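Interim report to the steering committee. The following record documents the input for Peptidase S8 (463 residues).
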Amino acid sequence: MMCRSLCQLIVSGLILSLSSMVSSDACAQLTIGRQIIEPVNPIIDKVPVDVGTVRDVLENQVEQGVGNTFETLANIPAPQFTVPSPLSLTSPAGNLVLKEVKAPDGFLAVKSEWLVVGSEADKTHFSHPDITIESSHYLTAIDQWVYRLKVSTNLDELSQIRNSLPTSLKEQVGRNHIYLAQNMGELQSPETYEIHENPAPLENQKNSQDKQTSIATTGKPKVCQVPVRIGMIDTNIAHNHQALKHLVIEQQSFLPQALPTTQLHGTSVASLLADNMLTGSHLYNASVFYTRNSISQGATLLSLIDGLNYLVAKHVDTINMSLAGPENPVLANVIKKISEQGIQIIAAVGNEGPASPPLFPAAYPSTIAVTAVDSKQAIYRWANQGNYVDFAASGVSVEVAHPDGTISRETGTSMATPFVSARYACLFRASSNQAQALATLRDQAIDAGAPGRDPVFGVGILQ
């Protein structure tokens, strides 16, 4: 009897411990270094549409008994979140152009650089021996100025630089963080299909056209029947690729001078958007990513903000951001101001694995966060998870345009995001109402995983 009572006490303790852990996870309150991510209420949850009963998977597992409790504990993934090593980028002449560092919050940033958003008059507050204004300009999108500051080592932490500023600016300062594109390259070496610019012999040309027609139609969703205006923050794109010929494309670079760049990621994302865009639709691209190495592209926060400012001026329906990185008060301010203007931002949740902390801008409440599934609707194994995930879409080994004129395959939450962006833009154009477009998008999602919304698939899969 005593043994049984002792066992019951131990079991009760395990369940209470796990329930506490579940409660903490449900609030998504994670400590990242010295930073606390507060609970968020995703924008899709604010839409007044009932899509089913919301259930918490882990709580159900607790209720099912101790056997499932031990199984759950055994299946908790080990931390997988990693930040790449910082790099120093030089010009062809050997001059240092950009030096990355790993900031105290664990993410990459430009060494000793901070951003502040405020009024033109606020520049008087930067008269400090340890602060130099490197650049400043007006942002029409948010009706504020952005200042890029270089600070001394003595001032290079958030508490110190905030102490040097008036109260009105304390919450409008953040590091010039670096954000990374969210693709994982090819999973395998697929067959590529070359698109010839020059005429080939008639028989070969016909075979090539048949093959291209097959690629363009097989498994593709129905193209939107109204012209849309979509913005994207990415690398430069190869706008003359055959897959993009039906679009009106405009792009502008916001890269610091002399940084190496690529067309690979941007062309892939643009082609996935183009798959679902009617002929004559407009695609606006803000090129912000520099090449870090053969598999990684980075963008400074200042470049992101300038790119967003450009896209807002183009009156786009939505902005695709296939990138992820740290929370930053400056980015949060800009995203909030843009969202208040009715422009929906749609972002990749990230490829850092189920144990990763929330990444941004996807984890901001006003942003639609997209994860990736494969052709069998299984979740992409390296996709981030959390209560901020809104939708899932195909993003594993998907066909994309390659800058060299061929078709290749790419994987990652970056590749899932364009489908949702194009679908939302189409719904928005049809209704001219953001809430209605979001509600319809939610209705179209196919529930997956646990019944109702869950931290893996969000509301469900869009096809």
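DSSP finds ten helices and 22 strands in the chain. The committee is asked to note this result when reviewing the revised timeline.
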